[in-house]
Amino acid sequence: MQLIAGPQKIVLKDVSIDSSVSFGPVADGGKGFGIGVDMVIHLPGLEREQAEKLVHDAHEVCPYSNATRGNIDVNLSVA
Question: What band does 70 get if pLDDT is binned at 50, 70 and 90?
Answer without folding.
Answer: confident
